Model the fold of this input.
Amino acid sequence: MMSDTNYLTTDFTLRSWFLTTDHKRIAILYFASLIVFFFIGGAAATLIRIELATPQADLVSSDVYNRLFTMHGIIMVWFFLIPSIPNTLGNFIVPLMIGARDLAFPRLNLMSWYIFMLGGCTTLFAIFAGGVDTGWTFYTPFSTLYSNSYVIVAAAGVFIAGFSSILTGLNFIVTIHRLRAPGLTWYRLPLFLWSLYATSVILVLATPVLAITLLLMATERFFGVGIFDPRIGGDPLLFQHLFWFYSHPAVYIMILPGMGVINELISCFSRKQVFGYKFVAWCSLAIAAVGFLVWGHHMFVSGQSLVASLVFSFMSFIVAVPSAIKVFNWTATLHKGSIHFDAPMLYALGFIGLFTVGGLTGLFLACLAYDVHATDTYFVVAHFHYIMVGGMVTAYFGGLHYWWPKITGRLYSEYWARTAAVLIFFGFNLTFFPQFILGAEGMPRRYHVYPPEFQVWNVLSSGGATILAVAYLMPLFYLGYSAFFGKRAPANPWDAPGLEWQTSSPPPEHNFTTQPVVTRDPYQYNEAFQAEPQNA
Amino acid sequence: MWRQWIPFWHPGLSPHSGDVDLLFTGLLIASALVVGLLFFLLTLFCARYRAGNQTDRNHRVKKSWHWEVSWTAASFVCFLGLFAWGASVFFQIYRTQIDEHDVFVVAKQWMWKTQHPGGQAEIDALHIPVKRPIRLVMASQDVIHSFYIPALRLKHDVVPGRYQDLEIEIDKPGHYHLFCAEYCGTDHSGMIGEVVAMEPADFSNWLTQQAPSSPLASEGGQLFRELGCSGCHGGGGTVRAPPLEGVYGKPVPLSDGTTVIADDRYIRDSILMPRSQVVASYQPVMPSFEGKVSEDQLLRLVIYIKSLAGHP
Done:
């Protein structure tokens, strides 16, 4: 029986939304903001792909093209991918999963959303006032001396948003340490929480370095203090070291939460405990730790010493090991399960395939001699889109569909959801696989015009992008429709064992009517493949 | 030829690019095996263990640790092999041997200027003889650029403020792409050129056919006098400065007790930052020429000083 009031129906005023300290409502605030950023970044990508359908410049000028890919990168990295799973799904699910009433610092949680929006609006202002043309990497001395665009404003937006990241990471760490329900030991934590914990550690440790780097860059640009520009006594490579010291761990900020979601989906839809739970849990922390020691693999051809390159190449191969272990464990989880192919599971299976291709091509790039050829070509572009879009965005969509009944209390159309999942998979591959070939043949990235022999693969890629764009728009409609007109969802539509499924859908304002007690491992299914509730 | 078996792949044109192609093939095969195995297992499990399908689900794997240890060890060993292979080729690629034929490359927004020792200058083009290692000495006038010849599987960034050596060799005559691979501003994608590899005889012809220009060394010598360098380094002046005859390539004792080889980089740094590495027993009195000479002029000065190497 549905309870009469839930977190959505306690109060309908705007004030009750914008001054809420309820983690569930803040998650919705994030969710709505991220949709806007995702489609702004996506619009830029669409224009880029249309332009690249022909070798000549026809749709936009070079200056506009450079602003488009910069905007696409900045928005997608800092205002979509990094906050996506932690701040929407994580915000909503973490307290529910550990049996708490809220995060440890509810007001800090609201503040982090306001900081995020301030940063986002600052960056959007820079983009619409005239744009930025440095690329999302802000490489010096181009960004400090030569770029004639809104560099400082855009960097200020990213700088501000960083504080939001730090506060969210801090909130998750404290929450997971302090607010676990009675009986919920570390090895009974769902793996989603292990990966969010690892993510939060990186957020807290790495983001300050980005802040320092951007501050130094702005100082050189504004005051002319020689830090990175050799003409006034600086060193351009110093910027790259500082930037990648943040930005490589940031890759793991983006992918670890996705991996966490996949654990939940694979387990739930094969009705089986995740194979090698402890290995998978510790792999998340291993990735977070080793991820700090691989940044130099972005600089193999920059002029850093050959010995440094050797060490960074070695560490990059090492960091691939725990990722490989995870893929093997997910596959082994399917063995002798009872597999259901609901939409979230289709996303999860798609994730395994796409992430594996992204990971393996990462080895090509970690391999010193091949990286000399492939770096700064479309091979790199394809590689990180397989991880970020094929991996992370697919996991985000999978998690969104999985927890949608819990968040909204409504069921979506399974038919449309499966169609979208399949379309995304094929559209994605058609968009990005040709880019591997372009890169292997030597087409550099960030090229507005290109030699005509590359056109075939660019046309295929642009065609795939059309399918992908349509597929990404579909959930906006069927999920949007279901939020208002969908069938009411039961408390546990997927027959999952997690704590979040034992409260009503949508949950009441304080999550649980009685304090849950945890008595067994996560992912507990009986011989008949039915979930065993935690405190039955 | 095995290299032609890779679909959509144009074989490389130097000894090193063959090694890189072989490495690429190795990586492709390893990846194909992993993807194939994974796809097979996923399909098999999804088909056999789909919900509702009656099949044997007893005797599940309970103890997982020996599986974990095996695939961890297997991944690690494979990765170690790929790492070592990639690293060994890498050190081959970036090895430079001093060769008689240096070519000087100046990158700037948005063009490649190349200059041969005889003074022949080109823009967005580079003519070289085949089957002979050429040493490029590269400098950037403004932002970071990256010198990239896909046919050689070779690139290196050109970072402002330092010289970068790169050895190239092409085995087959022809026209090849030269790209800027590091984003450098508005016309980044227009910063492309052509490398023309020619038979040695054709190359000699080409060199002589170019518009007559004075060798870079003599232009450097003229600059040396115009900028006033000769006033002190020429020996006759009132200020005592180290003589530059015979210095190039030799060890130079510094005032802090260390020794440095007087190569291109040291000479360039000494012109721009004369007080950072002062020759022993001399006073740090030379003014900096930072901002007073362009990369083109710097190159000529360096080449001039290099041309004095044979003098006593």
